[in-house]
């Protein structure tokens, strides 16, 4: 689809949304917006252990210098969590994905990558893999789901690598079954292709697969994970893989301009996110099913997928996006109840006249009961109709 529901309608200034949601007493989707002062306070508080499981960090140590020190601490920890020999911090996922795909292209001698047309490099990275690295893409399927092993075997073009986005965000945060994933990877191996996981949201996929992170990443040659999409970090992510892969990735990070002098704020927030969010993700995913079921009972609503595969899913309603945005902001401003971020009208076949938002069940959503969600939606729809 290529939409970004978190941005909301262009007619609503970001400042109004930020203020309304930050002051709200209750928040159903996502995390509460924080100011610059809030984030600085959070980082300063990391000097002492907190009550929510975040460890203490020595803030009297020197800052990192071109990726050493605390930045290296984060890389080692992520490699251990993912069960890979090593990992390297990247300031952006766009840069990390380019580095990974380029490495596999050069090793295989084939600059063609098999990926989905809804994959992040196609939709949200301005096709940097093609413009900057000279790579080509082939699509095993255009259906709004991950490709099957059969589709990959029937692909009439040779490719050097397969990129699998887990979960596939634009299709509704969809995940395959474990058997489907293993078979897809096996089909890529039959073709002699390397396998790269775009695991920006891989952290929350373990419950669906009923596998640990190392078990999931073991099927791939390399994996990218994000530090801000789920963990609440400031920015950045990491590439993990074999030692020689990571050494090459470091070289490409430098060439692409990602060898930052200091990156300790992003690193500290990532470490805190690993401490705070990873232990709670299973709870988020479980409660997302409760939230989705309550929202599905709203007249005219459609939840997809049902039940959700992770703690994120799509909610569709048969109203204009601009009206939904305004009603949501009024509910937050007038009653202190913030339900959803922005809405968009992607014009999906069979859903004409419907708008969509992405629902993210995080810590603040855990206190919501189905009855409270239903009551809040009644108030939301009343504002919409007025």
UniProtKB/TrEMBL annotation:
Cofactor(s) of this protein: pyridoxal 5'-phosphate
Record InterPro entries: ArAA_b-elim_lyase/Thr_aldolase, PyrdxlP-dep_Trfase, PyrdxlP-dep_Trfase_major, PyrdxlP-dep_Trfase_small
PANTHER family: L-THREONINE ALDOLASE, L-THREONINE ALDOLASE-RELATED
Family the entry assigns: Belongs to the threonine aldolase family.
A Pfam family that the UniProt record links to this protein: Beta_elim_lyase
Residue span, Aromatic amino acid beta-eliminating lyase/threonine aldolase domain: 68-307
Domain of life: Bacteria
Coiled-coil residues: none
Keywords, ordered alphabetically: Lyase, Pyridoxal phosphate
Protein name (Swiss-Prot/TrEMBL): Beta-eliminating lyase-related protein
Taxonomic classification: Bacteria, Bacillati, Actinomycetota, Actinomycetes, Kitasatosporales
